Amino acid sequence: MTPDNLHSKDGFGFFREASLPLSIALVIPVGALLVLLGLLLFPVNLGLIPFSPDGQLGLLLVIMAIQMLALGETPMGQYRRSWLLIVIGIAFAAMGIFSCIVPGILTGVIRPLLALLNIAGGAILLTKRFLPMLHGAAEPAVLPPILKRLLITLTVLNVVAIAFGISMLLPGLVPGMVIAGIVVINGLLLFVLASTLLKMG
C-alpha cells in the first residue's frame, strides 16, 4: 500500500476516504438537485426569475439515465444492467442533454414520458409492496423500527412520484407552488432514504 493510499484512508476530516456505497452516493446528489430545483420553482412561480421548462425536463431525464446506467435503477424498480437497459439509459441521457441545449423540440415527448414513468413506477412499486400483505392469510410480522422507517419512506416516495407524474401529465391541474413543494419533498425524502440505508448497512 502506497503512502498516498494510507493518507486517503487514514486522513483527517474531509480528506479521509468516504465509505459510501455507490447507490447511496448517487442518491445524495439527486436529492440535492431535487431540493434545489424545488426551491428555485417558488420564485419562478412568483415571476421573480426566468425559467426553462425544457432544462428542468432534460435534467430529470439525465438523472434517471445516470441511475439506469450506474445501478440499473429505473422508475419501475431495479433490474439487471442488461445491454437493453444501457441502450435505453443512453437514449434517455441523449434526449435530456438535447432538451437542455435546444429547448422546445422534445418537450412534447419528454413531458409525457416522465409523467407516465413516474405514475406507472410509483403504482407498480406500491402494488408489489402491499399486494402480498393484502393476500397474506397470516398476521403481518412485526417490523424493526429501522425497517418500518424504510417502508414508510419508500411508500411516501412512491406516492410523491405518482403525484409528480400527474402534475406533469396535467400541467394546468396542479398549481405551480404545489409542484415546487412536491419536488422539495421528493428531494428531502431521498436524504431520509440515504440516511436509513446507511444505518441499515
> What is the topology, as strand order, of the major beta sheet?
1-2
Cα-atom radius of gyration? 19 Å
User: Strand content of the residues, in percent?
Assistant: under 5%
- Element-level helix/strand string: HHHEEHHHH
Shape, please?
globular
Number of strands: 2
The helical percent reads over 70%
> What's the main sheet like?
2 strands, antiparallel
Q: How far do the termini sit from each other? A: 26 Å
* Continuous helix count: 7
Mean of residue pLDDT values:
83
What is the number of independent domains? 1
Look at the helices and sheets and give the structural class. mainly alpha
Ranges where pLDDT stays below 50 over 5 or more residues in a row are: none
